[in-house]
């Protein structure tokens, strides 16, 4: 499908396509609203049953595998066993909440995708498929999701734990002398990276907003990029309206990630057994983020921030 050439041709093509798009969007939205609740119910009940039903087995076999493995030292085993209940509780909460949210998204978006896909090139009986596609297939897909989730929780989990128990390799143990310097480095990393990365993200957000809108409107007029495929049109159109929210989300994501990026200094100190390398990483992490965000926004390469060496034999 070649986009039309010339401004008037592209504008006329857009005007003619708009009612067609709105009709498909309304139909897909109605189907999504109808199927959202039952799909969410199926996935929530199915996945929650798997999580809660296998929880005693997961608790027992996880503790058994950790205690019996030869890869971990006694102090590390003790620390893991102490904090493991927190992980298991989080697993239950995140699994159930994720099933609810996943069911809502899948139940709403799958019929909408199928509605636009029904009018793609080479399709026959378009009118019937616009109503039928995304109904029964979404229901079957929800059961498939539950089945795949069960396979992961049973077979994949068992294989991973068996490998942990039987594998012979590098021995891991807690080095207590490195814990205090690592903790100090994590605090310093947070105090430095959080405000600095937040400032960098805020400074680059206007550029991201303007550049994103420019690209989306260019594709809209020329029916290029995400607007070329019919199935992607509704989400590409929503992207224009919601792009400021995407920019805000990117800034907030950068702010949140700065916490983990700064705290990773503790890992550097622990791995390299050097507090100095942890300080070097804190400085280098600002340059790493600056270069990464510059690359994502397609800005001129490089960073004016220093990037000292923070590994003995790497980077």
From TrEMBL:
- This protein's source sits in the domain of life called Eukaryota
Task: Name the UniProt key words of this record, in alphabetical order.
Answer: Membrane, Transmembrane, Transmembrane helix
Asked if Ligase is a keyword of the record, the answer is no
**Keyword Cytoplasm in annotation:** no
| TM region(s), chain numbering | 6-27, 34-55, 75-108, 174-207, 227-252, 259-279
Please identify the protein, giving its name as recorded: Uncharacterized membrane protein At3g27390 isoform X1
Q: Which organism is it from?
A: Gossypium hirsutum
The taxonomic lineage of its organism, from the top, reads: Eukaryota, Viridiplantae, Streptophyta, Embryophyta, Tracheophyta
Gene coding for it: LOC107888736
